[in-house]
Amino acid sequence: MDYNSEYYTSWPEYMEKNEIKPEHGDIMAPAIQSQEELMFGFIMFLLM
Length: 48
Fold this sequence. Notes:
The chain has helices at residues 11-17, 22-47. By secondary structure, it is an all-alpha fold. It is flat.
């Protein structure tokens, strides 16, 4: 099953589409991960 979304892409696909170098991606990934976790927590808060 292939899941295509206009709003979501995996990190490797995002790096490929935006031509991010792997060495820059290693620096960016932890910052983006923390933002994703904060957003997930906020959405869960709104749903409760």
